[in-house]
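Query form — protein CNP1-like uncharacterized domain-containing protein

QUESTION: What is the three-dimensional structure of this chain?
INPUT:
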Amino acid sequence: MAPTLGHAWGLDFDRDFDEQKKPWEEVKAQLPSYPKDENLQAFYVSGIAGNHYFVDKTTLETDKDGVVRYVLVIKARGGATNVSFEGIRCANRERKIYAIGHADGTWSRAHDSKWQPIDSASSLSYHRALADEYLCPQGEMVSSPKDVLRNMRGAW
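ANSWER: The structure tokens for CNP1-like uncharacterized domain-containing protein are given below.
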């Protein structure tokens, strides 16, 4: 029996097409350690942004599900600090907040932990800046945390 064209090339068309149809499945995110100031990497959001924005370098993760996960720290001019564990899915231009950090170094699950579109209109959107400039340049997920940090350092 002569091989079919696909087998002659070593291809399995049924398997290849079935794999493309698989629904996206999110990797179960692991709660990171609470951020320390010495691990924070600043990133630029906008010239009109009044807050200071950072990611914890030790928590940056590029996962096989296409999500870049990180701990975000926002320091307001008035002294308030917000901490969250988040992810950005480059392929769909979406964001998700997994957990909120507290001043005592503990985490609580975010109340509205679902994928939401990233607002492209606001120049104050840190999610837009993270996606467009640092995590998903040209709409593609960076290949490693080192690339994210290189992008952030190059922006200054």
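ADDITIONAL NOTE: The chain has four helices and eight strands.
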